[in-house]
Specification:
InterPro entries: DivIC (IPR039076), FtsL/DivIC (IPR007060). The protein is mainly alpha-helical and 107 residues long. The chain has one domain. 70% of the residues lie in helices and 0% in strands. It is built from two helices and no strands. The longest helix has 63 residues. The N and C termini lie far apart (119 Å).
């Protein structure tokens, strides 16, 4: 049987060029990872700001929907003559003939 020389896994390259290339690749990789980290950090901040804006706009949208529903209800009620008469008497202090309007002072 021919003897096969044992190859060690711990063999170090004797070539300085290989070491330099590996070091250059590692430096480039570190620079890229640093750039990616900074970019990711900035994007997370922007996403949080946008999320806050979306929450504020969603709340404003809900408030606007509620006002819209109230206005629609008021429009529907204004088609009723009794409601219109009540509103005129209360807000404009109108009275029918023969009625007397009394003011009660507020304390």
């Amino acid at each position: 049987m021919p003897s096969v020389p044992a190859v060690s896994n711990d063999a170090k390259p004797n070539n300085k060029g290989s070491y330099r290339r590996r070091r250059l690749v590692m430096i480039i990789l570190a620079c890229f990872m640093s750039w990616a980290g900074v970019t990711l950090w900035n994007q997370i901040g922007k996403l949080q700001e946008r999320a806050e804006k979306v929450t504020a706009l969603d709340q404003k949208y809900k408030e606007t929907q509620q006002v819209n529903e109230d206005n629609k209800r008021e429009i529907a009620r204004l088609n009723d003559p009794e409601y219109v008469e009540q509103k005129i008497r209360k807000e404009l202090h109108y009275v029918k003939q023969g009625e007397t309007l009394f003011y009660v002072p507020k304390e």
